[in-house]
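Researcher: Next entry in the queue.
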Amino acid sequence: MSRSRALIGGAGTGLAAAWWLHHASHDASTASSPHRERWRRWLPLPGLSWASAQAQSLNRRLGGDKTVLSVNEWTTWKLVQTSMESTTARRFLFEPVQDAAEGITVATSTPVEVPPISCVMLRARVDEASDEVAVRPYNPITPRFSDGSLAFVIREYAGGKLSPRLHELRPGDIVEMKGPFEQYRMTAGEHAGRDVVLIAGGTGVTPCYQLIQDLVRRRREGDERRLPARLLLVFANNSELEILMRQDIEALAESSDGYLQIQYVVKEAPLVPAPNITHGLVTREYLQRVLPPPERDPFVLVCGPPGMMEAVSGPKTKDRKQGELSGALKALGYREAHVWKL
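Model: Structure for this entry, 342 residues:
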């Protein structure tokens, strides 16, 4: 057995393993990013956002001489745990590696910061013979300040370059990471007192989950005056069995004392009827029924597959700018100032 694999069961994995056992004891579904392997559209613009720069500085300080996670260089991470989330998705838990040649893992008590809403680039070899590598962005699902590990839920796409390779990984295998790259920043107090709605489809839930997780934490810590008044997650999936990260999301809702409300939309009839599960699609009529009206000045984040984006808000432009608001939200009277497309 190689040294790197022998370390997997060592003392350094304790905190990460505890987080993993709490969150991976179920078979739910997946979340990674709604890009369907089209990573180029997520490449950051020149320069770093304030939050990304702060996270980079913190990750460098916390990592000592070795950068734990950097936007400027690739760092090495080892797979510690993996389990099935659905028939097409797996959950992955990685820890940073201090020396890739020796497989020495950095202590998991070393925090890593990934601000919401941010992605991390993953790089792995996809062809042993040619040493070809592939790079794709994914949104970590661990808390903003993790215990030194990063977790992802990644769906395998047929014909994808990297996701099939990631699904072949076993504990002890190595990938490289770079980031975090901020996709949207909600500044402190920016939406204080407003309703914030997150409309997610499929794997588009992961950046939304990052934000929800952080806002619920801040509210619990007594930061209510600078936070949105209420969070509503509208989450669309093909079936109830494919509701992504359902246990994680509902645990947050239960701990939020009503601050986070959840509405599910499923194409297939639900297994068990429930007041917050709607059979159908995210249509204009549905959104009119569940969303706060434009007159209440809500803020709406939308993240999902192309078809859903087209129907709900209209797509982003080819150069990844917001583009014109259209779709159901425009028809219902929401303005571009109300909506942000992830």
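Model: Confidence is low (pLDDT under 50) at residues 1-50.
Researcher: Noted, moving on.
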